[in-house]
Structures are given as structure tokens and as C-alpha cells.
From TrEMBL:
Record's GO cellular component terms: Fanconi anaemia nuclear complex
Domain Fanconi Anaemia group E protein C-terminal, residue spans: 8-194
GO biological process: interstrand cross-link repair
Signal sequence region: none
Protein name, as recorded: FANCE protein
Gene that this polypeptide is encoded by: Fance
């Protein structure tokens, strides 16, 4: 019954209350995989807001607390949810990871893997714009590299912002090999658009 409710419009407190009742943020990961499969089968699709709430309830705590690579169950749940609701997922999860202080090595690796293998092109652009909204750090360079690895066509304004950011940050990364690789990748992938 709870699952059928999710295919109908619910106000935010109702959906958050339902998530709390089902203990989705702490449910066992094998159940999480099954739950995501059920979500993908719902008709009509979840609204953007409902998908964002579920992304937060299902994954935020788990992703932010990673200290080792995600289990295969968590990765399966993440990729299945991303396959249908990548935009709200990025708005919730990527934003939270970017704002998290510290190195966040496992979170960065996870973001790179999702960018490389799961996200739709428009969501890859969203990740890039989110990264460019925060101060660039060594932790974020692999994410930018993963975005460039997709070789997506970028809107001119987003490409301009990327180039401008890299130029402005050059002094801070004078000794960074990752930064040098990133600049080389930009010049290679977008050579016809970068002067």
C-alpha cells in the first residue's frame, strides 16, 4: 500500500513521514535495491520533488558516511535510481557532497563513477555547473576529469565558465599534476571552441 501511495501526489511532509515510517534512510541495503526496483516500476513517474525527497531519504546519509567503496547493493540501488531520476538525484546528492568539508575520497570516487557510467548528458552538465559553483579544490579535479571524459557537447556559456574557472585558478594549482591533466583534456576535447 505504501508503494502505491507514491504514485499519487503527496505533499512533502506526507512523503517525508512515509519515508520515516518505512525507515528508508537506515533500511538494509538488499531491501534498498528491491525498493528502487519498485520505484522504477511505478506509473506515473514520480514528480521531480518526490524523487528529490526520496533521493535524500534513500541515499544522502549512506553516501556522506562512506569511508570505503559502496557495497554492490548500494551501488545497484544508486545506479537504478539514477537511471530514471538522475536530475533530482544530482540536485540532492552532488550538492551535498560538494558542500561536505574534507577530502571525501570515497564520495569523490562515487561521483566520478556515476558521471562516467550512469548519468544522462543533461545531468552531466548539471554536475559540471554544480562543481563550478563552489571553490575549486584538488578533491573536485577528478570529477571535472570524469565530466570531460564523457566528451559531451557543452553549451557555450558552460564551456566558457569552465575555461574561465581554470584560468582563474591556475596559480593555486601551479604544482598539481591533476590540474595539468585537466587543462590538457579541455584543450583536447574542446580544441575547436577554445582559443
Amino acid at each position: 500500500p505504501a508503494l502505491s501511495l507514491m504514485s499519487h501526489p503527496l505533499c512533502h511532509p506526507q512523503l517525508e513521514g512515509l519515508c520515516s515510517f518505512l525507515q528508508l534512510s537506515t533500511c538494509p541495503e538488499p531491501f534498498l535495491v528491491r525498493f528502487c526496483s519498485w520505484l522504477l516500476a511505478l506509473s506515473p513517474d514520480l514528480s521531480y520533488t518526490s524523487a528529490a525527497i526520496l533521493a535524500e531519504q534513500l541515499f544522502l546519509r549512506r553516501v556522506l558516511s562512506l569511508t570505503q567503496p559502496p557495497s554492490r547493493h548500494l551501488m545497484a540501488a544508486l545506479t537504478s535510481f539514477c537511471s530514471k531520476y538522475s536530475h533530482p538525484f544530482c540536485r540532492v546528492l552532488v550538492a551535498a557532497v560538494l558542500q561536505e568539508p574534507g577530502e571525501g575520497a570515497e564520495q569523490t570516487k562515487l561521483m566520478c563513477e556515476l558521471v562516467e557510467e550512469c548519468l544522462e548528458p543533461h545531468s552531466v552538465q548539471l554536475v559540471l555547473s554544480q562543481v563550478l559553483e563552489v571553490p575549486l579544490s584538488e578533491k573536485l579535479l577528478p570529477v571535472l576529469q570524469a565530466v570531460l571524459g564523457r566528451q559531451e557537447v557543452l553549451p557555450p556559456e558552460l564551456l566558457d565558465l569552465l575555461v574561465l574557472t581554470l584560468c582563474q585558478q591556475a596559480p593555486a594549482f601551479a604544482t598539481s599534476l591533476s590540474y595539468a591533466k585537466l587543462v590538457t583534456a579541455v584543450l583536447t576535447v574542446y580544441q575547436s571552441q577554445v582559443s
